[in-house]
Structure formats: C-alpha cells, structure tokens
Design a protein that fits this description.
Layout: H1 3-40, E1 195-201, H2 206-209, H3 216-224, E2 226-228, H4 241-250, H5 278-284, E3 291-296, H6 324-327, H7 336-340, E4 342-345, H8 347-356, E5 362-366, H9 384-405, E6 408-414, E7 426-429, E8 437-439, H10 445-455
Parallel strand pairs: 1-5, 1-6, 2-8, 3-4, 3-5
Antiparallel strand pairs: 2-7, 6-7
Helix pairs in contact: 4-10, 8-9
C-alpha cells in the first residue's frame, strides 16, 4: 500500500473509532431511560408528581418531576431507580433515601396528631406522629404523606416532615403536661390550690373555742390540720358583724361612698359602688374564677338575691349583697346576676353538689344564726358553741373529703370575738396545710382576703398589700 493510501486508511479508522461509541451510547441511553421510568412508578405512592412522566422522560430533563419514584411517598424501604434523578447520571434515586424530611419543614405538615395550644387552665397537648418527635408547636409529622416541594427538600420519606427533632416542645406549647391529648386542669394562677371553701362562723373568741369541751368535732380537726393562734380583729370591739364580712370581701369597711358600721340590710345608702373586691376581680379574670354564695335559711321573703333578712337568715352575714355591682343599684331582691351567684344552703343539696363536682372554685358558706355560734332567742339551743359544733360535724365531712381529693382548702373563720378579743379562731383544712400545726404569725381578715387573691392569681387589692398572707399554715410548695 502506498503511503498516501495508508494515510487515508488511518484517517478512516480514526473516524470510525470515534463515531461508533457515540452511536452505541445514544442507543443505550434511550433504552435505559425508557425502562427506568416504569420502574419508578411504584414509589410514587400519594405523591403529587404526575405519574404519566414515568414512561420515557428519564433522560430528557434534569427537573425533579422526571424522578417520580424518588419523591417522598409512603415507601419506607424504597426500591432502586434505574433511571436516576432524571438526567443526573445517578444510578438510583433511592426513593427519597432515606426520606430525610429535609432540614425540618418548620412544623405544620403531616397528620400524626394535632397539637392544640390553649390558654390555661387547659392544654390539649397532642399525640406525637409516627414520623417525628414533635413539630414546632403546631402539628407533628406523620412520616407517611408526601408533600411536593421544590428541590432539594423532600418532605415525605421514612422520617416525615419536621425532621428527627422538629425543634418542638415535648409537652406542647403552654401546657402543664399535654399528656397525649388529655386536658390538664390548672387554675389561673398555676398554683397548687384548685378550690376554696369558706365557712363563716360568729362571735367567738379564740379561747372560747380552742380546747373547748363543747366543740369536740372542731378540736378534732384542729389536731389534724392547722390553726392560727394570732388572728386579730381589725376593727374595734364595738363594731358589729356586717363590717367584718365586708372586710373579708374587700379588705376594708370604708369606701369613698360608704362606711359600714351597722348591721342594717343592704339599701341605696347602705351599699357601695366600689368594684375593688374579690368576686368582681374573679369575674374580670381570664379565664374567670367561678364563685357562689351558699346561705342557710333563704326563703321567699329574702329574695333570690337575698338582700332582706328573714327568719334565721341575716343579710349582714352575706358580704356580697352590699356591693352594687353584684346586687344592683340600689340592691334588689330580684337582681338576676346576684341570684345566679346565690343558693339556699341545705345539707343534702350541698352534699349532692360536692358528689357531682358541681361546686364553684370559690364557695362562701354561711350557716344560719342558730348554727353559726351566734345564737338567737328563738333557736332550739342556748349553748351556741355546742350547736355550732354539731352543725360543723354534720356538714363538714363531705367538704373535707372533697378538698382532700381535689386539691382544695377549707377555711373556718369567725367574724369577731365579741368582747373576748382581740383574738378569734381560724382553722385551715386541706391536703396542703401543715399537720397539727399552731401558727403564730399575726393575721386579720385582710390576710384572708390577700390569700384568696394569691390563690386565684388575682391582683392584690391595695387595701391588703401590707397584710401577712396565710402561707405559714401551709406546707412548702402548697401555697402560691
């Protein structure tokens, strides 16, 4: 062969060696793309990617839509994709391998249980989803439902949206425990006391009750719970009952439009427009604190809003009816709002309310004058301490049981010592009080008023800021 022919032959060989691989590569690429698309279709699951793209588009585009098998979907053990990630040259999309959920999708995807945030006292919590720990306080990832996003984030897969931690809270935003969707009851203050019961007794000094053989039941309670040895009358001895009851409610008996010094029934002149008192604070709280006045001896003459004394019921022993924002301006026996917060006390009805758990958070109970150690010439017994102790022994056991079972407290207090002063009895009963304790801290009725504010997380009334609260009678961490 001549040099010229040899030269042409070499050139032709070189050309053929260059072109043949290209042709083969094109043929193989077309064949591989067609097969890969079909193999991926099983991984699409609930994906929003069009399954029609799986037929032959595997090598024609580098967009996410070509790799239909690699989107999130439901498979937790995806099969290999022969077509790769649509033109990327990768041998497998691993079907979202391993469905890492991206870099946490900021909550609100998946359906593993809705976390509902509520304001106290309750928090619904929420059951955590199978695919993540907790979302960002909204909803948790379920790990099973795919969500279409732009690359490179894959929101489905084995772990689900929100990633492995989700930057959430294990208890649910603002909840006490959020135990898997079970409501958790808390009082507005977040404190340990849920219910308060007050039984208001009358006209006895501390030395007349403590250790008295006429009061065996009461002294039995004193030996088990806590009582105060220095509970003082905040008013002069000549001041009668009514101003003391008003003091229990407002921390004072003196207002800009009235000063209470008598035992008269409420009227336009013997009432106040002041709103600086406990039950108005309770109504204004968020959420509101429920309250109820239980007065023994109400009848048709007293009114549904009991502003009129009748029989053995004395309006002077019901502090709420002297405030016009409760009883009306002027106070009215038919005032609907007042009537809604008053019930006639009977042993049977109150026992049923306790058994049904239908009592209020704050319950003020006043026995009639024959049962509160006050006495009256028409009462069956002249031994007022014994009569009062008999009433307590018949009526307190279900209250004591209720407070012990429901994180409550029962306060037994007296309005005044009436000549035996200045000290009067005061007893605290409940699971959080000290056992068999005699407290020496100085108290007045304002101490009681301040403590009610603290228990229910209410603003402290200006009239009682300087008073000691009742915390000394309670075990550590049992008083707000």
């Amino acid at each position: 062969m001549s040099r010229s022919k040899a030269k042409h032959s070499n050139v032709l060989s070189l050309l053929l060696s260059t072109l043949l691989p290209v042709g083969l590569s094109l043929t193989m690429s077309c064949s591989s793309g067609a097969g890969a698309g079909g193999a991926l279709d099983g991984g699409s699951g609930d994906s929003e990617i069009d399954p029609g793209a799986s037929g032959g588009s595997g090598g024609s585009s580098s967009k996410q839509t070509a790799a239909t098998g690699g989107a999130a979907g439901r498979p937790t053990a995806p099969t290999s994709s022969e077509g790769g990630a649509a033109g990327s040259g990768a041998p497998s999309s691993e079907a979202g391998a391993p469905g890492s959920g991206g870099a946490a999708s900021a909550g609100s995807t998946g359906s593993g249980g809705t976390t509902t945030t509520t304001t106290p006292p309750t928090s619904m919590g929420g059951t955590t989803g199978a695919g993540s720990t907790i979302g960002t306080g909204s909803t948790t990832g379920s790990g099973g439902t795919a969500t279409t996003t732009t690359p490179p984030i894959s929101t489905g897969g084995a772990t689900g949206a929100g990633g492995a931690t989700g930057a959430g809270s294990a208890t649910g935003a603002g909840s006490a425990t959020g135990a898997g969707g079970t409501p958790v009851t808390t009082n507005p203050a977040g404190g340990p006391i849920k219910y308060v019961f007050v039984v208001a007794m009358e006209n006895e000094a501390a030395q007349s009750v403590y250790g008295s053989s006429d009061a065996p039941y009461l002294n039995g309670l004193i030996s088990k719970y806590a009582h105060a040895a220095a509970f003082n009358d905040p008013l002069p001895d000549a001041i009668p009952s009514e101003p003391h009851y008003v003091w229990m409610e407002a921390g004072t008996n003196t207002f800009s439009d009235a000063t209470f010094t008598t035992d008269s029934d409420p009227s336009a002149s013997n009432s106040t427009k002041s709103t600086a008192h406990l039950v108005t604070q309770m109504a204004a709280a968020s959420p509101a604190v429920s309250w109820m006045s239980f007065q023994e001896g109400l009848n048709g003459s007293t009114g549904a809003c009991p502003v009129h004394s009748s029989g053995f019921y004395a309006a002077k022993h019901d502090p709420f009816v002297f405030f016009q924002d409760v009883s009306g301006s002027p106070p009215s026996a038919s005032n609907a709002a007042c009537a809604a917060h008053h019930q006639a006390y009977t042993t049977a009805a109150f026992g049923q309310a306790l058994a049904a758990g239908s009592v209020a958070q704050y319950n003020f109970v006043t026995p009639n004058v024959c049962n509160d150690m006050h006495g009256d010439s028409s009462c069956p017994s002249s031994n007022v301490i014994a009569a009062g102790d008999a009433w307590l022994s018949a009526n307190l056991p279900p209250i004591v049981d209720f407070v012990n079972a429901h994180q409550g407290v029962l306060f037994i207090m007296w309005d005044e010592p009436e000549g035996g002063g200045p000290l009067m009895p005061f007893v605290a009963i409940g699971p959080g009080v000290k056992t068999g304790y005699t407290g020496s801290v100085t108290y007045t009725h304002g101490s009681f008023t301040k403590s009610i504010d603290e228990i229910f997380g209410l603003p402290i009334l200006p009239t009682v800021t300087g008073n000691n609260d009742l915390s000394d009678l309670f075990q550590p961490a049992s008083f707000p």
